[in-house]
Design goal:
With 193 residues, this protein is of the alpha+beta class. Helix content is 24%, strand content 38%.
Amino acid sequence: MLKRLLLLSAILSILFATTTQAATVLQLEPMGGAISGLPGSTIGWGFNLSNTENYLVVTSAAFESATTLGTFTDFISASNFFVVGPAPNASTVWAQTFNATTQTGIGSFTIDPGAAWSSVANGQIILSYDLFSRSPVDALFNPDTDTLSNGNLLTASASVTVVPLPAAVWLFGSALVGLAGFARRRPAYALAA
């Protein structure tokens, strides 16, 4: 009877430990990862990365798609070093909005100038990270003993859609062309008066 209770207790503690472990989560901004822009424009994704166990350091980001509409540039690992994990040497959440000028967010996507309107590149953002048992900013950090794993991956669905100029811009442009044509057709004596 005692053996059965000990076995049941061990099984329950294992189940409870696995259900309470926090997962590492990546969310793109905008939610769902769908962004759009004009041909030749630079757009991108913000992110929210959370991790409550161990210490995570991002090593790279990429946009993988079967369709080529432009070029992805990694921001999150290129100029940002941030440890995501428990206090006091880290924060459990790291979030940034996209800004091409300050190079914040997970990365930018420059749409080819010749991309056809309504073209869509469906794919995913792939985030690579290393995991440590001690924060890399801790004075006692030792990469030989504190490294748990390298090259871990997180993915999030993402898409890029090429949109045309808004109708108001087309209408304004057409009006300017019409006025230029009208001015050319007026006789010279009408312009002198």
